[in-house]
Design brief:
With 244 residues, the chain is of the alpha/beta class. The protein is built from nine helices and seven strands, in the order H-H-H-E-E-H-E-H-E-H-E-H-E-E-H-H.
Length: 244
């Protein structure tokens, strides 16, 4: 429980004391959006790094060389923990937003930071609003902001099988003509979700696979892009599971 109390207290204090920073970031964004992206990314990485240290996470990252040095990408990963966001963001070299549940947009202060890092709020119960989020994601990718999605649609409690991917979010990569980076995340639920509310030390492995370039895929693979990407991630997940 001590780790949980320390981590949750850190998050609350960060959100409260970052109010002046949010105001400053808003001013910077009016005159220099690129600078705002860099400073916001640095602040959020600092906060997430603090959370991971307090929670006792030992992070191993494989395949950083597969992330392109230039241009936006669509990161696609499996999802079993809130720490998936905390830990993957620490690995991203460039500004990256996440596709999040619409309910997250109502959280005070946290939602502002999420908007600042270009998160998209997806209402899966409203087709029209969901399409707006997808279109916004396409705009972000075309402007150079990467997006990370967890297309299982919910946090997966199974330690063995990655749930089927929802195909809709993959339209962003198709329309923006950007590569897809498959991401496997092993053992992140062991930090917290496996024994709520306690947080425990855990070794987490994140692997970035080789970029998937849509123009190199067959017609069948492009038709079932989600299934193709899931198969790649499942293979990495199964391999790394043996290393935990």
């Amino acid at each position: 429980m001590i780790r949980f109390l320390l981590t949750s207290s850190f998050v609350i204090l960060f959100l409260i004391f970052s109010i002046p920073i949010l105001i400053l970031e808003w001013i910077i964004g009016k005159y220099n959006p690129e600078l705002k992206n860099r400073t916001t990314q640095a602040m959020v990485k600092w906060a997430f790094r603090g959370c991971s240290i307090l929670a006792g996470v030992s992070l191993e990252v494989i395949g950083r060389e597969h992330i392109p040095q230039e241009g936006a990408v669509l990161y696609v990963g499996n999802h079993s923990s809130y720490f998936d966001i905390v830990l993957t963001y620490l690995c991203f070299p460039h500004p990256t937003g996440y596709v999040a549940k619409a309910e997250m947009s109502k959280l005070p202060l946290l939602s502002i930071w999420m908007k600042n890092i270009h998160c998209l709020f997806l209402d899966r119960n409203n087709i029209k609003e969901g399409m707006k989020a997808i279109l916004k994601g396409i705009e972000e990718l075309k402007s150079g902001i990467s997006i990370c999605i967890f297309p299982e649609g919910t946090r997966n409690t199974s330690p063995d099988i990655i749930l089927p991917f929802r195909e809709g979010s993959f339209r962003m990569a198709e329309k923006a003509k950007c590569p897809i980076i498959p991401v496997s995340i092993n053992n992140s639920s062991a930090v917290w979700e496996a024994h709520l509310p306690a947080m425990k030390k855990a070794h987490v492995i994140i692997e970035f696979g080789a970029p998937i370039h849509l123009e190199e895929l067959s017609r069948e693979e492009r038709k079932f892009l989600g299934a193709h990407t899931r198969k790649t991630i499942q293979a990495m997940y199964d391999k790394n599971k043996k290393l935990i």
